[in-house]
Amino acid sequence: MRRVESSALIFYHLFVIIITLCYNIDINVIFCYILTMKIALVGYGRMGKMVHSLINEAGEHEVALIVDPLGNVGKLESSMLAGIDVAVDFSSSEAVPENIRCYAAAGCPAVIGTTGWDHSLLDGAEGDVRIIHSGNFSIGVLVFLRIVSGASKLIDAFDQYDAAVVETHHSAKADHPSGTALMIASNIIGNLGRKKQIGIGCPDGRIADDVLEISSVRVGSAPGTHTVIFDSDADTIELKHTARSRSGFAAGAIKAAEWIIGQENGIYTMDDFMADILGGR
């Protein structure tokens, strides 16, 4: 890691350390604010470019490697990660398995925001990698998930309410349902006892009572809207998160990168990140 050289920042860092010691705050939570990172961007589509833009605007970290199938470096190799502090992966579901092998071989922490890959690839790999993965790194979405969790627990006491998830994204999005919609649906199923499984696509016939249906819409350039519906004969309750741009996703991925470098080897999700930041709240 390279230290930030500004004398003002040095005094700031000393102040943060003193506060950390006095109030018994986990040093890993503030570790990222003391160090500047060399970042590899693995995948350079819309999200990769947005992450790059935010890093340049902030001026706190350095993009030291870009892996772009359409650029000069088209495929990741473990040797490329020498001197890299963390990789931010918004590549493709097909590329993720080999990318994970590269991260493990190089001992490089990674943030994986790519969706549509088989998460069982990480089974048994906890000691070999340091990875945080999520279908959505937006802080707003993480807060939304907590709201959905609380609402689902309340609705669980009232049998008259059914539930469903609707997600809308731009027409170029390759996968459906979105990774975020699956996160939301899993959250609901974990808190709403009468829903046991997720329904995807166009059902043939009546949807079973224990199925939580996800409906996907692909249109125009919409960055992403997720709506949770609780419906009864008497009324409808809707919870909605609408992304205005991809900047929220990118900013959250950078925060996750700052966080993961302070963790031990293991497989993490944004639930772990939020639990660390929020503590028992």
Estimated structural class = alpha/beta
**Mean pLDDT across all amino acids:** 87
Helical fraction: 25-40%
Termini separation comes to: 32 Å
Query: What would the CATH topology of the largest domain be?
Result: Rossmann fold
Order of helices and strands: EHHEEHEEHEEHEHEEEEHEH
Strand content: 15-25%
Give, in spatial order, the strands making up the sheet with the most strands. 4-3-5-6-7-13
Number of strands: 13
CATH-level-4 superfamily name of the largest domain: NAD(P)-binding Rossmann-like Domain
CATH A-level architecture of the largest domain? 3-Layer(aba) Sandwich
Q: What's the CATH class of the largest domain, please?
A: Alpha Beta
Q: Please indicate the count of domains.
A: 2
Question: How would you describe the shape?
Answer: globular
Low-pLDDT ranges: 1-10
Keywords:
22% strand, Dihydrodipicolinate Reductase, domain 2, globular, disordered N terminus, Rossmann fold, alpha/beta, 281 residues, 13 strands, 2 domains
Write a concise synopsis of the structure shown.
The chain is of the alpha/beta class. Helices cover 34% and strands 22% of the residues.
Q: What features would you describe in this structure?
A:
This protein has 281 residues and is an alpha/beta fold. It folds into two domains: 37-136 and 247-278, NAD(P)-binding Rossmann-like Domain (Rossmann fold, 3-Layer(aba) Sandwich); 139-242, Dihydrodipicolinate Reductase, domain 2 (2-Layer Sandwich). Helices cover 34% and strands 22% of the residues. The chain has eight helices and 13 strands. It has helices at 7-22, 27-31, 46-58, 96-106, 139-155, 179-189, 247-260, 270-278, and strands at 2-3, 35-36, 38-42, 62-67, 86-89, 110-112, 130-133, 162-169, 197-200, 211-218, 225-231, 236-242, 266-268. It has a six-stranded parallel sheet, sandwiched between helices. Strands 9-10-8-11-12 form a five-stranded mixed sheet, covered by helices on one side. α3 crosses α7. The longest helix is centred in the middle third of the chain and has 17 residues, at 139-155. The model is unreliable at 1-10 (pLDDT under 50).
